[in-house]
Amino acid sequence: MSQYQFEWPIRVYYEDTDAGGIVYYANYLKFLERARTEWLRSLGIEQDTWLAHNIAFVVRKVELDLKKAARFNKELTVTVDVIKKKKASLMFEQNVLGKDGSVHCSAVVTAACVDNSVMKPVAIPASILSRIETEV
Hints:
Layout: E1 6-11, H1 25-42, H2 47-51, E2 55-66, E3 75-85, E4 89-98, E5 103-115, E6 120-121, H3 126-135
Antiparallel strand pairs: 1-3, 2-5, 3-4, 4-5, 5-6
């Protein structure tokens, strides 16, 4: 859908690895989350500002495909690409890539916009949507 793809660099820290020295699978979710947060920040959307107005984005669904192990100290790039926009949610395609372009992990993430005080879906505010639409 989008011609714009955000990229965020990540380095694998020792704390990200399991006993075998590879990235523990759940930590890929952290990498994906950080990249989406930095993507929003790059658009001038600060989540703490919206939290003060009880607006939050919460992950509703994740499809994660682990393709290649990443090890301690490896430099990775996490991509963010909006593939679907709905009234109260965004769907992202995300990849964790090695410097050589190899895919370590791919994911499809759906994030819902909610009224944080009651945890019910709400329409994505127009000011947020307009910033997102200028990039996708």
